[in-house]
């Protein structure tokens, strides 16, 4: 009988416990193995010294620990580091580490490509290839920890995780939630819910599911102050318009670990950046406790958009601030390695799959 080899990175605590129990093992084995895999970055079962020898031998034939394979590792002059990960079939995704004075943020991808086709996004322009597995998602954190020299003694460089890489996390709901659970698990990465942020373009039913399954900090990509404009910039708005999105944000806050939603807003010259847009936003978000993060547009070839000039962004921010909304403007990091928001596109993508991608249903929708 052929024994199926499972990748242990695919399992969160509950799934690993079930798997051990199915094999006739004690449930606490899951906790032990989880610690070895995620806290200590083990890849070899022989390292797992508190696991019985017989079980180690059995695991060696039934399981593996297989993180994604980095095919490129680039470091920007500002310290931002980017890994290009091979996910098979000529697809690649990117993971970006952004060091700051008192924190280190890892930006993780959830899909190879994205089906949602936002007008200003380079990932969207490449079309959808496939969902990443739970192992490929958590594997990015596993790998980055290892590459950044974490040694398992609790001294970790990554203090925050943002699901803001390639793809729409809530369109790959189950795998993303498994990975989130591991990020929060004390036997794995032990991050607090406030330090893990999911960014969504606004898939309303999946926002409700996330609130119930694993509420983390939530960022919502708003980018427009009215439906006509958002329909054009963020096409999922045609399905879940602003009124529904604002209501979903309010519902999310009932269980969210932070008492505000972060609205992301890309600043596109002459498109969504006027004083009138800012004032319209103030009234749109009236009933949603929120902060704004303005993102200067990061250009890519033939995008058809330009970045708003700095004084325009400043004035836009002032209008929000004057209305009592905490507003920050994102610093562009990692430009010289194309690691800035919206520039993540992989390098070996297969553009011919674009048409097929459009009809792939979105999980959770
Ligand atoms: N799919 C999710 C998360 C990934 S994108 C989402 O859309 O929220 C992370 C952020 O970068 C989003 O707010 C996205 O709209 C923004 N973004 C995309 N392309 C960009 C670009 N070219 N310049 C600046 N920000 C961009
Ligand atoms: Fe997808 Fe987000 Fe890019 Fe829109 S902005 S195409 S949802 S990755």
Automatic annotation (TrEMBL):
Gene3D superfamilies hit by this protein: 1.10.150.530, Aldolase class I
GO cellular component labels: cytoplasm
Residues covered by the Radical SAM core domain: 100-336
Active site (catalytic residues): 94 (proton acceptor), 341 (s-methylcysteine intermediate)
Entry's EC annotation: 2.1.1.192
GO annotation, biological process: rRNA base methylation; tRNA methylation
Note, other: Reaction proceeds by a ping-pong mechanism involving intermediate methylation of a conserved cysteine residue.
Protein name per UniProt: Dual-specificity RNA methyltransferase RlmN
Species of provenance: Zoogloea dura
Gene behind the chain: rlmN
